[in-house]
Write a structure and sequence with these properties.
It is a single chain. The protein is α/β, with parallel strands linked by helices and 424 residues long. The protein has helices at 3-12, 18-37, 44-72, 81-95, 105-115, 117-133, 139-151, 156-172, 181-194, 224-237, 254-265, 278-291, 308-325, 343-355, 374-382, 403-423, and strands at 212-217, 242-245, 268-270, 296-299, 332-338, 360-364, 386-390, 398-400. The radius of gyration is 25 Å and the shape is elongated.
C-alpha cells in the first residue's frame, strides 16, 4: 500500500467524526472539574462511588420518562415511523454522554499535526525552501537535507541510514526532480522506525483478574507525575481500576502532586510520609492493589540523577521488591523523557537503560520543541520503542505513539499538497 493511501485511509479517516469526539471530550473533562469544584477533595473510593451515582440517575430518568411517554400514548393512534425514528434519535443523544467513545482517526492525526507544529514550522519550512531551490535531486541537495535532519535532532545514525535509502530509491526509480521528494522521505522514515518491530505501542497488560504493574522512571522535571495522571485517566476510561503508588518520597511536594492527580482522575494513591523508603511504599501499594482487586498499579519513582549511584541502587531495590511480590512484574518500565532537552534525552535514556530494564519511552512536551526528530534518534540508537507522546496540556493529549502519524505531523503541509495533486 502506498504512503499516500495509508495517509488517506488510516490517518485521515472522516473529519466529520470530529464533532462526536468534541462532545465526548467535554463530557470526560467536565467530570474531573466537578470533582475539583465540589469543595473538599474526597477519598478515592468516595470519588468512584459518586461517579457512578452521578451518571446512573440520568439513565434511570431517561428510561422512566420514555416508559411513561409510551404508556401515555397507548390509547392514541400508533406513532408513525418518522416519530419512532425521532424518539430513537433522542434516546441515542441522551445516552451518549454516559459512554466512552473512541476518538476518530482524523482527530488523532490532528493532535499529532498540532503537537508537532513547532518542529514542522522550523524543520519542514526549511525542507520546503530546499525543495524550491533545488529543481534536481543531486548530491548537493542530499548534503543540505542531511544538515537539516541533524539540526532537528533526528540523530546521526538515523540520518545516515535515511540518506542511503533515499539515494538508492532515487537511483532505482530514476528520479530527476524534487517533486514528491517529501513523500519519499516520509515513507523511508516510517520504514526506519518500524523495521523489524510489531505492536510497539501496546502496553503489556495482564489478563483480566491479574494485576498489571507499571513502573515509571525518569529525572525530575520531565513531567513524570503529570504523565502518570494522564495515563491513569486513559486506563480508567477503558474500564480499568487503577491504583497509584507515590514512590518519589524525596522530592518536596511530589507526594502531594500525585495525590492531586489521584483525586482528579478518581484513583486511590498509596503513600507514606516524605523521606520514607520507596521500596516500602511499593510493598504497601502492591498489597493494597491486590486487596482492592485493582487492574493496574502505576508506580512513581524518584529522579535525582545528580545522585546517580544512589538513584540507580534505589531503583534496583524497588524492582526487587516488586518482583518478589509478583514474579512477572514490573510488566512495563516506562522512561519519561523531556523532548525539549534534545540530545540530553538520549544520555538520560542510556543511563536508565543500564540501571533497569526500560521497556518503553514516554516522550513528554513534544509540542514544546522544534527538535521533534529526537523520537527517531531514540528509537534507532537505543532500540527502545516510544510508547506514548505528550502533544499538549489537555488530559487526552497523551497519545499512543504512531510512526505514520508522527511523520505526517512533521511533513503535514507538504504531504497535504502532494496528496491533493496526486488525487487530481
Amino acid at each position: 500500500m502506498s504512503f499516500f493511501k495509508r495517509i488517506k485511509d488510516k490517518l485521515m479517516g472522516n473529519p466529520a467524526d470530529e464533532e462526536k469526539l468534541e462532545v465526548t471530550e467535554h463530557d470526560l473533562d467536565s467530570h474531573p472539574q466537578a470533582l475539583e469544584e465540589g469543595g473538599e477533595p474526597a477519598t478515592t473510593e468516595t470519588v468512584v462511588e459518586e461517579s457512578s451515582e452521578q451518571f446512573s440517575p440520568i439513565e434511570d430518568t431517561t428510561e422512566s420518562e420514555q416508559t411513561s411517554d409510551i404508556e401515555g400514548t397507548q390509547d392514541l393512534e400508533p406513532p408513525s415511523l418518522i416519530e419512532e425514528e425521532e424518539q430513537l434519535e433522542v434516546q441515542i443523544i441522551e445516552e451518549q454522554p454516559t459512554e466512552e467513545k473512541k476518538p476518530s482517526a482524523w482527530s488523532i492525526t490532528q493532535k499529532f499535526k498540532e503537537g508537532l507544529e513547532k518542529t514542522r514550522n522550523s524543520f519542514t519550512s526549511k525542507v520546503n525552501d530546499l525543495v524550491a531551490r533545488y529543481r534536481k535531486v543531486d548530491e548537493d541537495f542530499f548534503e543540505e537535507l542531511e544538515d537539516l535532519l541533524l539540526q532537528a535532532d533526528v540523530g546521526f545514525e538515523t540520518v545516515m541510514e535515511l540518506m542511503d535509502k533515499l539515494r538508492f530509491e532515487v537511483q532505482r526509480k530514476n528520479i530527476k526532480d524534487t517533486n514528491g521528494i517529501q513523500t519519499l522521505i516520509s515513507e523511508k522514515l516510517v520504514e526506519i522506525y518500524e523495521q523489524g518491530e510489531e505492536d510497539l505501542i501496546e502496553l503489556n497488560m495482564q489478563p483480566d483478574g491479574e494485576l498489571t504493574v507499571i513502573l515509571f522512571v525518569g529525572v525530575n522535571g520531565v513531567g513524570k507525575t503529570t504523565t502518570i495522571g494522564k495515563l491513569a485517566r486513559r486506563l480508567k476510561s477503558q474500564g480499568k481500576t487503577v491504583v497509584l503508588a507515590a514512590g518519589d518520597t524525596f522530592r518536596a511536594g511530589a507526594i502531594d502532586q500525585l495525590q492531586v492527580w489521584g483525586d482528579r482522575v478518581g484513583c486511590e494513591v498509596i503513600k507514606q510520609s516524605e523521606g520514607s523508603d520507596p521500596a516500602a511504599v511499593m510493598y504497601d501499594a502492591i498489597r493494597a492493589a491486590k486487596n482492592r482487586k485493582a487492574d493496574v498499579l502505576i508506580c512513581d519513582t524518584a529522579g535525582r540523577l545528580q545522585n546517580k549511584v544512589n538513584l540507580m541502587n534505589e531503583l534496583e531495590k524497588v524492582h526487587r521488591v516488586i518482583s518478589r511480590e509478583i514474579p512477572s512484574a514490573p510488566h512495563e518500565v516506562l522512561l519519561a523523557l523531556d523532548a525539549t532537552t534534545g540530545q540530553n534525552a538520549l544520555v538520560q535514556a542510556q543511563t536508565f537503560k543500564e540501571a533497569t530494564n526500560v521497556t518503553g519511552i514516554v516522550l513528554t512536551k513534544l509540542d514544546g520543541t522544534a527538535k521533534g526528530g529526537i523520537v527517531l534518534a531514540i528509537r534507532n540508537k537505543l532500540h527502545i520503542p516510544v510508547k506514548f507522546v505528550g502533544l499538549g496540556e489537555k488530559m487526552d493529549d497523551l497519545q499512543p505513539f504512531d510512526a505514520e502519524r508522527y511523520v505526517y505531523g512533521l511533513f503535514a503541509d507538504g504531504l497535504d499538497k502532494e496528496l491533493q495533486n496526486n488525487e487530481e
